[in-house]
Amino acid sequence: xAKDSRADKADKADKADKADKADKADKxxxxxxxxxxxxxxxxxxxxxxxxxxxxxxxxxxxxxxVKLQEWAVATGARICVLFEGRDxxxxxxxIKAIMERVNSRxxxxxxxxxxxxxxxxxxxxxxxxxHLPAGGEIILxxxxxxxxxxxxxVMGFCTEQQxxxxxxxxxxxxxxxxxxxxxxxxxxxEISPEEQTRRLESRIKDARKVWKLSPMDxxxxxxxxxxxxxxxxxIAATDTExxxxxxxxxxxxxxxxxxxxxxxxxxxxxxxVKRREVSLPARQKDKGYVAxxxxxxxxxxxx
Length: 303
Known about the structure:
By secondary structure, this protein is an alpha/beta fold. It has one domain: 3-Layer(aba) Sandwich (Rossmann fold), CATH 3.40.50. It has 11 helices and 5 strands. It has helices spanning 6-9, 15-24, 51-75, 91-99, 117-120, 151-155, 160-179, 193-205, 215-222, 224-238, 253-266; strands at residues 78-85, 107-110, 137-142, 182-190, 245-249. A 5-stranded parallel beta sheet has the order 2-3-1-4-5, with helices on both faces. Strand 2, helix 5 (117-120) and strand 3 form a beta-alpha-beta unit. Helix 3 (51-75) runs parallel beside helix 11 (253-266), helix 4 (91-99) crosses helix 11 and helix 7 (160-179) packs across helix 10 (224-238). The termini are far apart. Mean pLDDT is 89; it is low at 15-35. Residues 49-275 form the Polyphosphate kinase-2-related domain. It comes from Paraburkholderia silviterrae. Keywords: Kinase, Transferase. It holds the Pfam family PPK2.
């Protein structure tokens, strides 16, 4: 998978950061112990990013996402991105940041509900396959087939044998997806227990967010270490050379979104597609048109 992209070329300031991270990596490319996913939430906090700085960088990256979109349409590329993480890790917010300026017919979000009784009787991957990208599509899975390795395993919605079988099978399935020409990216958003507590408590207190908190979320919160073990098993079994997991430190929402988007752009060898120049045409003449005297039901102008 090519790693030189317009997004990387446009942002040379991070070279020193890359060199520092490279020093910490061992010969296999795995991150050393100090950078383990379990420690993701314990990294030293950078200064808080201002809303102005965040918006400026997100706007810049959004321009690149539009270029990626136009390239995908022009070339028929098929791109599939998986977003996984604990409740409150920021999956929704990151996806919304990506979707802010792009075409929702090209970038599509897939967030499947709990399986129906019919779907439970099918081959596990069957309900996900119809949502894989066609040519010129970029699919963002807000949770994915990895539900089996996470929530289903922890909450007992599948047997331990089914979970273990899934972890054995999924690398082969993902290799088949990629062999068919689909670019597959997998992101795990990692937060600390303290930050998860803060975010879930804010949902309890904020009437705008309370709908996000379900009994399942509360039970998942209680089972922090069960989820930690499930995550560890999942990454160990499915972090492959052809389909690696990328872990995002997500305690800082703004930085997490920007880091993930920038990394995603760096992994896809898109090119800027030339557009023809466009200008507005002259409007037709009114030819005597008169607006009707119709009693329209107008919305009150309260603002």
